[in-house]
Design brief:
This protein is of the alpha/beta class. Helices cover 38% and strands 16% of the residues. The protein is built from 16 helices and 13 strands. A seven-stranded parallel beta sheet has the order 3-2-1-4-5-6-7, with helices on both faces. Strands 10-9-8-11-12-13 form a six-stranded parallel beta sheet, sandwiched between helices. Helix 11 links the parallel strand 9 and strand 10. Helix 1 crosses helix 16, helix 5 packs parallel to helix 6 and helix 10 crosses helix 14. It is globular, with a radius of gyration of 22 Å.
């Protein structure tokens, strides 16, 4: 049996949106019935294991922590690649990328895989040179020209971006027009499960001081994501309780202090939630799911996973108008849209959404049905079209 191999670098630490993307891509392929391997340099490193270095293709099933951290199903195989300390610490002329691309791939992986999917350009190039059909993902604007002999090779199948602007950046950097597409991210099928009891428990935990309305944000805690703006929004709406998930301990502490300095007492920072499956009931607990984002360069290529998780939850959304999401403005059934950067307008949009779409414990079925087209499995099916040699 040959496998579809997704290559990534995993830390299993908070603030790991790109890691989650890679794991979800692999998980979706496995859920569709394709033999799938998620390979990555082992982290943290284990003690010296010569067997792992010379006979590395030992597929494993994810342990409980891995499953809970990424919220995956049980069909995925993982392959942590042993990296000796001398290479990891950079004392050798090889580095981690060189070991994986020049040793593991051609000698131990090549004959066991039928396709590669990766965001790592070095690994993508090595796969093409080893005549392996390759899917490459690039989520940021191109910084350098792509090697023409790689991108024009028939084994380089497609470059996937997440917005039209990023796609154009790839073309300008030398990617053949016919080999670039852009696809939205997706949501895990588990977000379609209704969890009314757990959702009610979240409401009892989070609603404080006689507040009856709950607004949730989930995602990275960076200024461009609109976190500072959301604190100002909360100050505009003191009778509404806000809760924010995500971020590192340092980021959470920073924003807790910022909210305190601004005398905002109706916002709670929950940090990175594990098991990740608890987000399902949290989103269903909300009256409104907030999708703030500032304008600027980052707004041109972001394509947040949370938007599609929000849809699957059936909870109404208040979203800022950023380029990658504008195609949804006229089509998402239960959402209110507003321009970025202005907390007063965002606050007004929340009030409008509450008037138009009062909370339903069962969720708004229109959003749920609409969102079903944006699962990770639906995304994977589009990618499979570029790999006719794949068989289940």
């Amino acid at each position: 049996m040959k496998y579809y191999l997704v290559y990534s670098q995993l830390s299993q630490q908070p603030d790991s949106a790109h890691e989650i993307h890679d794991v979800m891509c692999a998980n979706a392929m496995a859920n569709l019935g394709y033999g799938t391997v998620l390979a990555y340099p082992e982290n943290p490193p284990s003690k010296l294991k010569l067997g792992s270095l010379f006979f590395p293709f030992n597929l494993q099933k994810p342990n409980r922590h891995f499953i809970e951290f990424y919220d995956i199903q049980d069909r995925l195989n993982i392959l942590p690649l042993f990296i000796p300390d001398i290479i990891r610490k950079g004392i050798n002329r090889f580095n981690v990328s060189s070991l994986v691309c020049k040793y593991y791939l051609p000698l131990h992986l090549k004959n066991k895989i039928n396709a590669v999917h990766t965001r790592n350009w070095n690994f993508a190039k090595a796969a093409v040179k080893n005549k392996i059909p390759t899917i490459f993902e690039r989520h940021y604007f191109a910084e350098n020209k792509f090697e023409s002999e790689i991108v024009n090779d028939p084994y380089f199948r497609v470059c996937i971006t997440q917005s039209e602007l990023t796609k154009q950046s790839m073309i300008e950097a030398g990617m053949p027009t016919e080999k670039v597409i852009w696809l939205h991210n997706g949501f895990n099928q588990t977000f379609l499960e209704r969890q009314p009891n757990e959702a009610q428990q979240w409401r009892e935990q989070l609603l404080k001081n006689n507040r009856e309305t709950l607004v949730i944000y989930s995602g990275a805690l960076y200024p461009f994501k609109g976190i500072d703006l959301l604190i100002d929004v909360a100050k505009c709406l003191p009778k509404i309780q806000f809760a924010i998930t995500g971020g590192t301990e340092e980021q959470v502490k920073h924003y807790q202090e910022l909210a305190q300095n601004k005398q905002v007492d109706n916002i709670t920072f929950l940090g990175w939630i594990v098991p990740r499956s608890r987000l399902i009931s949290l989103f269903q607990a909300a009256d409104i799911l907030a999708h703030p984002h500032l304008s600027g360069k980052s707004a041109n290529f972001t394509n947040p996973v949370k938007f599609f998780q929000y849809l699957a939850s059936g909870t109404p959304i208040v979203a800022t108008e950023i380029p990658p999401l504008m195609s949804f403005k006229e089509t998402v059934p239960r959402a209110v849209w507003c321009p970025p950067d202005d907390p007063n307008i965002f606050a007004q949009s929340i009030q409008k959404a509450l008037e138009l779409y009062p909370r339903k414990s069962t969720g708004y079925q229109e959003n749920i049905e609409y969102g079903k087209e944006f699962s990770w499995e639906k995304r994977a099916e589009k990618i499979i079209n570029y790999l006719p040699e794949l068989i289940i």
